[in-house]
What does this fold into?
Amino acid sequence: MKKVILFDIDYTLFNSLKFRKRILSEIKKHLKDDKYKNVEKVLDRIYFKSRKKIGYFDPGSFISDVNKKFDSNIPIAFLDIYVKKEELHEHLYEEVEEILKKIYQDKNLTIGIFSGGDKNFQREKIKKILNFFHENHIHIFPYKIKELKPVLEKYKDYRVFLIDDVLPILYEAKQIDKNVYTIWIKRGRFAFFEKEVKNFTPDAEIKNLNKIVSIVKNN
It folds into this structure.
């Protein structure tokens, strides 16, 4: 049977924590309000509230919330402009490119993306490694859990390996198709604070992507 590996982006391929710290530091430079002793913590709270409100990180909405809080006038497109000039590949995890090269060389393996968030923003994060992914296998949605079933149905003739840092996503995938091989990558804030899902254990747990090639080839 053909095999497909579906990678999440944040905390799987891309170090979102490192990136968030960078952009919050950049935004801080544009804030003249000094009434908050710890601006970084305030910005962090705004970030998570903005994400929770929409369900995913939307750059424009986040900047709008920052402007309201600080009575500032940072352009709504600030992050879009910043991202385009920033070297985002610096925020890819160090092993990512090498691992993708190894997988790409195996013609029996298909590499794909299954990720949530703003489509353009997410694609910018993996711009340097997009050449490893065929366009037909890149699946990015605002609320990816709602799209899980149709995406898995697309690969009904494949052995699917799903890699994610969010345990409930893997659990839901297993409920839809018990043959999906679930891989929990335990890095990032979601994995760190994740509670166990009752009566569910992922097929594999990893701390980075270095074992992915052997896992896929042996299962």
Remarks:
- The two ends are 11 Å apart (CA to CA).
- Residues 39-54 form the longest helix (16 residues).
